[in-house]
């Protein structure tokens, strides 16, 4: 898997970040099952809570294109330190990470990056399995 290509796509999307409030640009890029790369940036709002992170922008764009399985994701935020995905984005990644673990590439640039697994950064995630278990037991 070409991590550098994914990082470069994230860096390029980062340029489109809409960040008038934080000035903190983030870009993300996911590798879909069909080999396509789908990227996204953070989009802020005057009502701060309406802000969407780069990771979720990329994932939601992919889903809107019919790509529901993520094979890897790269994230570039601050260019001088490593920017980890927030908790909400980690949870959204799990939803589309096709049963299990995917590499999460946390990058400063194409040369300096760390590869974590989703399980490493979100152990014991809540998944749809928990919902179906509860339904089977009619525990509702
Ligand atoms: O992994 C991250 C962390 C933060 N942000 C965004 C949200 C907000 O626009 C800005 C500051 O939190 O950075 C992301 O897009 N991804
Ligand atoms: Zn986030």
Mean pLDDT, to the nearest integer, reads 95
Low-confidence blocks of residues: none
State the domain count: 1
Report the CATH C-level class: Alpha Beta
Number of helices: 5
Architecture (CATH level 2) name:
3-Layer(aba) Sandwich
Overall SS class: alpha+beta
Please trace the helix and strand order, writing H or E for each element.
HEEHEHEEHH
Largest beta-sheet details: 5 strands, mixed
Helix content, binned percent: 25-40%
What does this structure look like?
The chain is an alpha+beta fold. The protein has one domain: Cytidine Deaminase, domain 2 (3-Layer(aba) Sandwich), CATH 3.40.140.10. It is about 35% helix and about 20% strand. A hairpin with a 4-residue loop joins β1 (about 25-30) and β2 (about 35-40). It has a 5-stranded mixed β-sheet. The structure holds 2'-deoxyuridine (DUR) and zinc ion.
């Amino acid at each position: 898997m070409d991590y550098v290509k994914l990082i470069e796509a994230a860096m390029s999307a980062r340029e489109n970040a809409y960040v008038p409030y934080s000035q903190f640009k983030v870009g993300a890029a996911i590798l879909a099952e069909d080999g396509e790369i789908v990227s996204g940036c953070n989009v802020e709002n005057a009502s701060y809570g309406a802000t969407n992170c780069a990771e979720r922008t990329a994932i939601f764009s992919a889903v809107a294109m019919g790509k529901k399985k993520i094979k890897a994701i790269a994230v570039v935020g601050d260019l001088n330190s490593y920017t980890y995905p927030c908790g909400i984005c980690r949870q959204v990644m799990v939803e589309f990470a096709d049963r299990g673990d995917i590499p999460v590439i946390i990058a400063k640039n194409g040369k300096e990056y760390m590869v974590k697994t989703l399980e490493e950064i979100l152990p014991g995630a809540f998944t749809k399995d928990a919902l179906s278990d509860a339904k089977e037991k009619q525990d509702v």
